[in-house]
Amino acid sequence: MPRQCSKSWIDTYIQYTRHQEASVKFHNWIGLYTIASTVGRNIYIDRKLWKIFPNLYVAIIGPTGDGKTTAADIGVLRILRSIPDVEIIIEKATSYYLLELMHQLTTKKGECCCNLYAPEMKSFIGDLNKTELVTFLTSMYTCPDAPEYRTKQQLQKGGIYKFKNVCINLLACSTPEWLTTGTTTDDISGGFTGRFVYIYEDSITRHSPFPEDLITQATLDLEKDLIADLNHIKTLKGQFIITDQAKAEYILWYMDRQKECKDERLKGYFSRKRDLVFKVAMLISLSEDDSLVIDEDTLKQTWKLLADTETKMATAFSGVTDDPSMKYKDSVLSQIARAPAQQITRSDMLRKNWNRFDGMVLDRIITNLVDMKVIQMGSKVTIRGKDALYRLIDTGVI
Q1: CA atoms in the 13 A half-sphere facing the CB of 183
Q2: Rounded to whole angstroms, how far apart are CA atoms 126 and 130?
Q3: How large is the greatest C-alpha to C-alpha distance in the chain, in angstroms?
Q4: CATH topology of domain 9-317
Q5: From CA 335, how far away is CA 344, in angstroms rounded?
Q6: Is 75 left (phi over 0), alpha (psi -120 to 50) or beta?
């Protein structure tokens, strides 16, 4: 059956969501997650001793009220949930529930492919790297063929969970504040969160106060086309072919890729980028046609998409540090920059952040910023008496 979308699936999806205010960057990756969740293990790149499947762990990061969850709901609840036989787990899932579900899928279908959607990453993950759920999702990222998994409960019973043909996709939404307070540098650089692609945007560039007045029947028809083409994409099966020219381009990039990681907090992401490039390239190719071919143009599109994503990725973790008091350094600096005349008193800073940190933490942050010669500290006489004054002197760091 010919495809219904006149453009690529992703381009059509961007057109379909153009009146929703979230960043186009968010919609791009939600679209890729939707395709990945549809195809599961149907398509792959054969590395002889292992295979690369196009599953993704995607984190959509932005401030509260930026429309990220609404954007994700459109992709998951309106589009993906319309595709038959696609297993979706929404909201918080316990490790026990997920293990039981995957055991049942293995028994019934001979494979256990499921897709997780967490509108709030904080509530989904809980204690990062301390739960069986996190450990399980970390080990299942590579889509193993026949893994065995032991939980504490199963070990006590002397049993194990056995799965077959695993494929898990994960889409989670979060605020940068939770990433700052809920993660550490070790969490980000490796392990579970190191397997994520972090999509960060801190501003809204599209404004639709009354989107219902703009969404026409033609837009709703695009939804039908998107669902029809996803159903078609779901039928595609087989091995992706990489053209000789694409291989040559990849080799050049691969040999020089170590220079890309300029932030230790993203070491986990960049160390896995060699496979991520192929995952995304497969999804972009599936979005365009049924060829199951990755050529040099597909790779160039992939690198551009990843480069655009990486420009702000580190910003999402600007407050993630081994020193708890430094978690709020960027927030303090930002507040000074936004204050009238780019200066603020110590008492006003503490009033603004009474529920986040105390004076001892603030003093350590200020000392660090003064030593960096980013701010200058003076004094000011107020109605409350003499008060320390913080003034921004290097606007280049904002």
Answers
A1: 27
A2: 8
A3: 78
A4: Rossmann fold (3.40.50)
A5: 8
A6: alpha
Kindly report the number of other CB atoms within 10 A of residue 248's CB atom: 10
Tell me how many helices (H) and strands (E) the chain has: 17, 15
pLDDT digits (tens, 9 = 90+) for 327-378: 677 778 878 988 899 999 999 999 999 888 889 889 989 998 999 898 999 9
Structure tokens at 283: 């999804």
Cα-based angle 59, 65, 67 (whole degrees, multiple of 5) = 60
Structural Rg of the chain based on CA atoms: 23
Give strand pairing partners of 117.
90, 171
Query: What is the second-level CATH architecture of the domain 324-397?
Result: Orthogonal Bundle (1.10)
Amino acid type, 207: H
Instruction: Name which of 1-10, 179-188, 331-340 the model is least confident about.
Output: 179-188
- The predicted model gives 122-132 an average pLDDT of 60
What does pTM read for this prediction? 0.79
In this predicted model, what pLDDT tens digit does every residue of 240-264 receive, in sequence order?
999 999 999 999 999 988 777 777 7
